[in-house]
Amino acid sequence: MDDLSKAQAAEKIEDLRTQIRRHEHLYYVLDMPEISDAEYDELVANLRKLENQYPDLITPDSPTMRVGGHVAPSFKEVKHITPLLSLGNVFSAEEVRDFARKVHSGLPEGTKVEYVVEPKIDGLACSLIYEKGRFVRAATRGDGTIGEDVTNNVRTIRSIPLTLQLAPGERAPGLLDVRGEVYMPRRAFMRLNAERVAADEPEFANPRNAAAGSLRQLNPQITEKRSLSFFAYAVGLGAQESHAESMEMLAKFGFRVSEGWQKAKNIEEVWQLIEKHEKVRATLAYDTDGVVIKVNAVWQQNLLGATGKDPRWAVAFKFPPEQAETTVEDIILQVGRTGVLTPTAVLTPVRLSGSTISRATLHNEDFIKEKDIRIGDRVVINKAGEIIPEVLWVVFEKRTGQEKEFTMPANCPECDWPVVRREGEAAIRCTNPHCPALGREGLIHFVSRDAMNIDGCGPAVINQLIAAELVKDSADLYLLQKEQLLNIERMGEKSAENLLAAIEESKKQSFDKLLFALGIRHVGAKVARILALQYGNIDALRQASTDELSAIRDIGPKIAESVVSYFAVPSNLDLLYRLKKLGLNMEMKGVAGTDTSHPFYGKTLVFTGTMPTLDRATAQTMAQDAGAKVSGSVSKKTDYVVAGAEAGSKLTKAQELGVKVIDETEFMRLLQQ
């Protein structure tokens, strides 16, 4: 090959790439290898040799570009093109039927609904972006709107094509957003844990944890050694007219799609497929924890839309979790950031669903009384949703008479102030507005991943900072000095520097994240984002009235009263003033006026009709993020009407007034500018 001309080398390089991609697809996607590992390695070696001779012929999608050579200092945040929604869970046949009833109630009467049922892979959700057929970016789910850029690591997963497989003469989609699950096969998981034991390192609890830890390695060469794989299960942007057609398209493009997916004509067929999947799950090469049920027709999905982070057109049926029997050694109380006393069972450690369980939530006083749980009881536990350990029932026949009943105290275990149970509530709360537990739990919430995301500042560090009297509230975090941190036990110079850097970096968090971090009662992540988009900055929100807030969709009087009450407390206003002075972000970028060059900035948009791939709520949020105002009616002040199928009177009025009308494709084109 040394005497090849550049033109001949280019031809040979393309031929080798075609062969390698074919064999990667056969091996990693279809499990049907045609050549030996040695023969495959020889093809790659020949390609790498030619590319070294002609480095200007190297392309980003070449098979030799799978493993990056650099170690990233951290993962950048990246915004998803469309939200990467999570799924609500159901656990019984009746709940599955109830899901179907809700689907039918959200569609025109008499609409026939077809479903797709597919296994729910127990891994890590990921979004892959392809531009004109080439892989360009990968991101984790994150909070559904913002994820972490894991492009270099995902390149190492050989079941993911770097270039879409296209038929002769077929054009690649301009932009394709592929959603799927990064997972670790059981065999690779067992091999990895054996290696960690040999190296005297802690084992991973289960394949999902191992996959998540491997995908988030800063060095992609480590990720490459972990034998991760990928199942594509949806299309975020670029979907076909049905989910089934999208799955067929993904398979044609070279993706491994969810095995065993099938269409069902009705919900009874759905249940039959669920029972079928549960019987075979143990024989699969990877972990599944349930099945996903999706409405097949995309127009029906768009009409049904989403609530919060969950689509109304899809749900996850979770297989019954494993159960274990253990002993309640004690019942302790934890005081949360809103003052609620939550009882927790201290258990004799027991292995369950791949991890060791030593505690389980008991929720509240009514839960303990209803199940008659006593200290010393033998109990059966499971993981609710396979995440949170929970007591299912007491094994009464094993009682010895030595068990002790538990009663909720009259005073807070943290500050000794009286506790109270308000009428109509199950929760018991501390009445002390300055209870140390409220401050501690509030700080833990403030630094958490979904709030200010201060890495390295978990509960243990917060407790140390409070004990050392270095912080009393969230503003104190931004005044910490390196010399102060070095006096904390097990806090070395590098750890102190990393913590201070993470605290400084958190100042860049968006306004909605800060709003959520403040811990205003009833203001979760979704509500915080709605308020941030609606008002744009803290000053405008502070001046909002209860009636004004209540009129906003998804807010209501309870949340409105809570928000107004928060801003009526002088100490809260003082905290906000200090945080603002310290440089935290108090306005919504893209809404309050930073990206003034965007085509939608300051424009008024009206959405009407059903769009091919976006539901209306998602499209409206995307427009607001770009600085647009979204209105429900068309007037002379309207700049754009985004019209989909079956657009009605709004489209007619726009045409009469001469307002510019665009479709989803043009909307997305302008949005990306």
For the largest sheet, list the strands in their spatial order.
Answer: 2-13-10-3-9
Low-confidence stretches: 68-72, 590-594
Computed CA radius of gyration, to the nearest angstrom: 28 Å
The major β-sheet equals: 5 strands, mixed
Q: Which structural category fits the helices and strands? A: alpha+beta
Cα(first) to Cα(last) distance is: 45 Å
Shape verdict: globular
- Estimate the strand proportion: 15-25%
Count of DSSP helices? 25
Mean pLDDT across the residues is 86
Instruction: Report the strand count.
Output: 24
Fraction in helix: 25-40%
What does this protein structure show overall?
By secondary structure, this protein is α+β, with helices and mostly antiparallel strands. Helices cover 36% and strands 20% of the residues. It is built from 25 helices and 24 strands. A five-stranded mixed sheet has the order 2-13-10-3-9. It has a five-stranded antiparallel sheet with strand order 16-15-14-17-18. Strands 5-4-7-8 form a four-stranded antiparallel sheet. Helix 17 (511-517) crosses helix 18 (525-535). The longest helix has 24 residues, at 6-29. It is globular, with a radius of gyration of 28 Å. Mean pLDDT is 86; it is low at 68-72 and 590-594.
